[in-house]
Amino acid sequence: MTALGWGLPGLPLVTGALLLLSGRRADRLAPAAGVLTALGALILAIAVAIARPVIGFPLFEDLAAGMAVDGLSAVLVVAVTAVTLGVLVFAAGDMPAGEARGRFFGLMLLFAGSMLVTVTATDLAVLLMAWEVMGAMSYALIGFWWREDERVRSADVAFLTTRAGDMGLYLAAGCALAGTHALSLSGLASAAAPWRDLIAAGIVVAALGKSAQLPFSFWLSRAMAGPSAVSALLHSATMVAAGAYLLLRVQPLLAATGWAATLVAWIGGITALLLGAVAVAQRDLKQLLAASTCAQIGFMVLAAGVASVAGGTAQLVAHAAVKSLLFLCAGAWLTALGTKDLAELHGAARRYRLVGLTFGVGALALAGLPPLSLWVTKDTVLAMALQESPALYAVGLAAAVLSAAYSARMLLAVWRPATASTATADAEQPGTRRIGFLTQATLPVLAVAAAVFGIVGVPDLAEQWSSLLNARGESEPTFQEMLLSGVLAVVTLVAAVILVRRRPAPRSTGARLLAPATHWLHLERAVEHAISRPTLALARRLAWFDDRVIDGAVRAVAIGGRRAAGITAGRVEFPVDGVVNAIGRAARRLGALARRPQTGLVHTYYAQAAVLLFVLTLVVVLVR
């Protein structure tokens, strides 16, 4: 069983490392190796979910670490590996032979493997290791086309933003050692004050940064610079979901603080609302999907805040299927038509019917249309929000309406008939005008998962689902609540159709009002003005102080020492040398005088001794 537990993350990590080290030599074999590895990981994930292995090992003396599979991680490992398999099958058919496929599939497998370690880690040390690898792989994948400066800048922004949030996890680990003398995730809630509050604060910041919640949301817009398969995996079941998973995992800690749960719930609800408005305003399909990811992750964060672990986990898994499907459809159209601009995608769903139909299923599920998956999972979360606060429930319900609005916008854009003015293609890259077999084979499977996962809302299955996640006692949505959200979704979709038919082009006034939302609420600019520029200005001032004051003082000391040495050499050293030289000359003269009596004649020595004796006698007589 231990080997099974090590094998699950080990298989993609080892294969990914080998492909990455092989470089271009592995380009031909990389797609097959990536798909087979993902398939093997899925089989292992199912076996691990059944066997529930526990692995423990000493990290340092008296400090244990390990990985384990419980109900929550069992669901997540299957979801991560299933989505990874679908995305890699798509990439095998979508990525041209000229690309660095060995590097791409290696990075993707390392990325997925680090997520598997993240969801099975039982302590902050192992979690931090996987967290760091996941961030590094996301940086490399977003900037995969590194020869293009703008893509590299986007990777830099995404990496630095998430890294800023990641510092909170280091704070949490340090405070956990101080407060509990251990790093176990299950023991964080028992830490004494003030360590417990500091641990919670660090984890909340790290999770919000990783999951692109306010105020960190803008980095997800930058993440769209990577290949479509990267967007599908990153936005569905891996990195962006990791923060929400962590909050669900440490929900007892959030509740124990008395403030963290409320804060998390409101941040999740407000993100779902505001980023839903951002999604409605987008003109780029991938940007719309990115903003909608922030909004939908907001429901998961809201679930962690209101103790809806079963609802939040169901939302995470259903969203993974829906969003990976939608991103892969967007990527297929980008490959075939060379554009992802909504105005230029008119007629795309009619031209490529299978992609259009599966995209339609995903979009309707994202809208919360009954009886599709996100309708059920979203209402499960909102039911617990209603128990916490009617105001929080109202915010969540408004965010759900916006979900239907942005889903309708992209759905209508791709199904509207193309006209001469909207038939532009190849705006971003040369289109192939075809969609490969492997690409199309992936989409129906994901569409089925996006549609039917709502069965977790069936009463008997819902009870088993809650039991699996050890989340009994959670409120379930009433018939009236589900009817309300379903009716609102239908009404929003119908209203969008009517609005588009009557007023196909937005008015300039409306465009001006939507300008902040179009630019992601100017969050990146706000961070640039409030943090980046002041920090760089401070750095320049400190550099000036270091160069002019500190270095100037050091140089002044050196110059003063050199001048003092010159003065000493001219005014002191020469006289001193003269005295020394005079003493030397005197010594030499005395030595010469002392050598004169040394004649070697005995009678001379007797004469000298007699004279000396006479002098001594004379001195004695005079002294007395």
Description:
This protein has helices spanning about 1-20, 30-50, 70-95, 100-120, 125-140, 150-180, 195-210, 220, 230-235, 240-250, 250-255, 260-280, 285-305, 310-335, 350, 355-365, 375-390, 390-415, 435-450, 460-470, 480-500, 510-515, 515-520, 525-595, 600-624, and strands at about 55-60, 65-70. By secondary structure, it is mainly alpha-helical. Helix 2 packs antiparallel against helix 3 (about 70-95) and helix 10 runs parallel beside helix 13 (about 285-305). The model has no long low-confidence stretch (mean pLDDT about 85).
Architecture blueprint of SSEs:
Elements: H1 2-22, H2 30-51, E1 54-60, E2 63-68, H3 71-94, H4 101-120, H5 124-142, H6 149-180, H7 195-210, H8 218-222, H9 228-236, H10 239-249, H11 251-257, H12 260-281, H13 285-305, H14 309-337, H15 348-351, H16 353-366, H17 373-388, H18 390-415, H19 437-452, H20 459-468, H21 479-502, H22 508-513, H23 515-518, H24 523-595, H25 602-623
Antiparallel strand pairs: 1-2
Helix pairs in contact: 1-2, 1-4, 2-3, 2-4, 3-4, 3-9, 3-14, 3-19, 4-5, 4-10, 5-6, 6-7, 7-10, 9-14, 10-13, 10-14, 11-12, 12-13, 12-18, 13-14, 13-17, 13-18, 14-16, 14-17, 14-19, 16-18, 16-19, 17-18, 17-21, 18-21
